[in-house]
Design goal:
2 domains
């Protein structure tokens, strides 16, 4: 066993919440299996502990006149440097800055930045598999959006179709401002060839914006390619809450020359050199000019701490280990004839990271997710995962014809049919977790008639157990924690 693998094995248990238990509908109390990491990962304990220690020294940044301010300023500066280093972004060419609302804020910000940087170009190319946060901002801010198709293998969509991308780039070259593409799909976990996309886009004069929200925690990222600059990424966005640090900010890494060419999107304290009654002078320093106001200092420090530890383990090592688990899970899914897995499942054709979406034939996704929770303590997510066009494209044949019409898409019955179940993995998941899921899915398939009698659908289209009401107030009460010190 190599040293890096040893460190990785040690880190698997270094997360808060792995031993969380809940009472189930059949009276048992079991350990939760957390398979919802694509939505938000669990908290990395070393980062949590480092943050707890830092709070004794907390102060605002942008000052060195007292000890705490100096510590905060230095650590916050280190957080930016760590992000650039972790993502292999040349600090001479790229700036890092933090944003609120995760990757969504960063995507909205960059859509406006690219629009103002090249106002003569009104078209953006977006892949069909994008999360809403890498689709809607471009529709709102950038003007004209063209959705790119995906390659199909064996009837299942794979990664972005590079031939189709080049055809559109050639046809629309004078209008295309940038290509916005996800590094890893939040639905299927399929990995896109983002560096090939960058090379193609740059050949035709387009910029490239990558949504790295599902990428950073799972595989290595190279924003700069010193020997092949045409494969560089122009901007990259991700979020700490999907990188083992709940509560941390969104992150943007962008070329400095792009940011310097226009006035910053956000103005206020900290991003100016001087303010007069009739004008103000913007600082030329990064990241200050892009971070108006008081930032999420603790969140940035916690995120950088996690990245530092992952860097020491090695993201190549981490990717290999997680790929092994994903391949194992895909193989185990093939043993379930009642289950449909979406997206190309051959990792030799389309490599995957983190996520597998599926349905049990003739079982609504919401019912499957509810039973997994109530009777097996397995936390998954269902519905469309903020990627409606992508999901609906894959399940079109499963939706009754009368529900495919646009006017029916928001009906309760359509909601019950239009969606999937997603199991998503993190550093802490094991083959044992996969086997728990397989056992549960076989149980649901074998006893679905009995389970159906135990559930009803509420006014919002959610499956609710007829008798089981988990005592959530007894399991966790924030009010009790607040009152305890004063009782």
């Amino acid at each position: 066993m190599t040293q890096s693998i040893y460190r990785l094995d040690a880190l698997r248990t270094a997360f808060i919440g792995l031993d969380t238990t809940y009472p189930l509908a059949d009276g048992r109390v079991t350990r939760r299996v957390y398979l919802d990491s694509t939505a938000s990962t669990l908290m990395f304990r070393p980062a949590h502990d480092a943050l707890e220690a830092y709070y004794r020294h907390y102060a605002n940044t942008h000052s060195r006149l007292h000890f705490s301010a100096k510590i905060s300023t230095d650590l916050y500066h280190w957080a930016h440097e760590k992000v650039l280093q972790f993502l292999h972004a040349d600090p001479e060419e790229y700036a890092c800055f933090f944003t609120g609302s995760g990757a969504t804020a960063g995507m909205n910000r960059m859509a406006r930045v690219f629009r103002d940087f090249r106002p003569d170009r009104d078209t953006v190319l977006v892949s069909l598999m994008e999360h809403h946060s890498n689709d809607l901002p471009h529709r709102k801010h950038a003007g004209r959006v063209i959705h790119l198709p995906l390659k199909e293998h064996s009837g299942q969509p794979g990664c972005i179709d590079l031939a189709a991308l080049e055809a559109v780039l050639s046809r629309e070259r004078d209008r295309i401002n940038y290509v916005a593409v996800t590094g890893v799909s939040n639905v299927t976990g399929i990995i896109n060839p983002i560096y090939d996309v960058a090379e193609l886009a740059h050949r035709y004069g387009a910029l490239v914006l990558v949504d790295g929200a599902q990428m950073v925690a799972h595989l290595p990222v190279w924003i700069s390619h010193p020997d092949q600059p045409e494969r560089n990424l122009d901007a990259f966005v991700f979020s700490g809450h999907k990188t083992y640090v709940p509560g941390s900010p969104g992150v943007v890494v962008c070329r400095k020359d792009i940011l310097s060419a226009i006035e910053p999107e956000e103005v206020g304290g900290g991003m100016v050199e001087r303010v007069f009654v009739d004008r103000y002078i913007i600082t030329s320093q990064f990241p200050d000019r892009e971070e108006a106001g008081t930032p999420n200092i603790p969140g940035a420090i916690a995120l950088a701490t996690t990245l530092d530890i992952l860097d020491r383990v090695g993201m190549d090592t981490l990717f290999q280990e997680e790929s092994r688990l994903i391949h194992y899970a895909l193989e185990r899914f093939q043993s379930l004839p009642t289950v449909m897995v979406y997206g190309e499942t051959d990792p030799r054709i389309c490599p995957r990271a983190a996520s597998i979406s599926f349905n049990i034939y003739d079982v609504d996704h919401g019912l499957t997710a509810a039973i997994l929770n109530d009777y097996h303590n397995i936390a998954v997510r269902n519905e469309c995962f903020c990627a409606h066009p992508y999901v609906e494209e894959m399940i079109r044949d499963d939706i009754p014809p009368d529900l495919r019409r646009e006017e029916n898409i928001l009906s309760i019955r359509a909601k019950l049919k239009s969606g999937m179940v997603r199991a998503s993995f993190g550093l802490y998941n094991t083959e044992e977790d996969v086997e728990r899921l397989m056992t549960a899915l076989r149980d649901i398939s074998d006893h679905i008639k009995d389970y159906r009698t135990l559930y009803t659908v509420d006014a919002e289209g959610n499956y609710v157990h007829r008798t089981f009401r988990p005592p959530l107030g007894e399991i966790f009460s924030l009010q009790s924690l607040v009152e305890a010190p004063f009782v």
